[in-house]
Amino acid sequence: MTIDILKYIEVCKRDIEPGQRELERIALTNQERVLEAFWRHRVAQTDLAGSTGYGLSDVGRDKFEAMFAEVFGAQAGLVRPQIVSGTHAISLAMYGLLRPGDELIYATGMPYDTLHSALGLRPASGSLQEWGVHVNVVDLLPDGGIDVAGVIERCNERTKLVMFQRSRGYSLRRSFTISELADAFARLKAARPKVYIGVDNCYGEFVEAQEPCHVGADLAMGSLIKNPGAGIAPTGGYVVGRADAIEQVAARLVAPGTAAEYGPTGPYLLTMYQALFLAPHIVMQAVKGSRLLARALSGLGYRVTPTFDAPRTDLILSIEFGDPAPLLAFCRAIQSAAPIDAHVRPEPDAMAGYADEIVMAAGTFIQGASLELSADAPIRPPYIAYVQGGLTYEHVEIALRRVLDQIVPNLR
Q: Cα 161 to the chain's mean position, in Å?
């Protein structure tokens, strides 16, 4: 590394500075909402103990789920260490609500790769289609917007759930802001009032000042090893929404008749409370770092989305390389700046739930924790890296130095 790289980063930092103030305002709004939930529910030291066995009479768990739902604008919630991923939370919600003969519509185009098997878009044992649920995917409009009219037209008497994926997944389409989702929800509810609206909220929590259930979603789902886990929750996921919907999802989580009453929290409850308190700040550290990466790489000719000056609604930054060699170099540079396994060299390999080989740069304290700085990519044209996370803005800046040193030979 030489002084030219440092000077270039300083230029980028000055360029992004005006937008950073708005992110701090959002973080303050979200932090206040979280704190008010702690105060309103009178969280006490005794609530943090956790439970074993069946988890019956776990007052701390019940209180946490009530305040978590409140923070996310919902009536009720399930926030459990037994939910192992975002894909698991989304699948849980869909299997909880849908019955044989029902129809599910995906309103935001083809969903994230790991859901293809659950939906039956790729053959898999136990998929929704195997259970007799019809799955219909509505493509986005040519401009990347949601085809709400097309979704309404596809709805019929069997349609029970319409799903929206807030983040982009492994695609170049833009992520959807809360205001865009609010407009789509209002139009859909006006035309089809009996249909449930669900949102894959992964990567989006606390990036804006509102969540999907604040603006009309009936359900929202996500993972605690992403935004709401603040980089410290070691496992878990959530489903929040309407009380009647959560009751059905809870029956699927454990068993009909026991539902949400069962479910031990073990040693995780303390960390889950801490994570919710920290999440508004930590998420915004990651978003600030993402804007710095976007400014630096776009300034060197790489196509990035979203651009550094575009509104943010999730953590993910996509960087198009056009060739596997610079893509791999980028991921290896990110890995080399990690606190854990920095000495490891990421290589593409097959991974459960994905059709293509995947390269993963993830030197993380929590395995798969996407709020920690990480980068991953399917090895397929146009060779796009998807970067997310950064528990501290400073870590992202240090990683950027390594990226520039290793992938940009003329910047010295």
A: 20
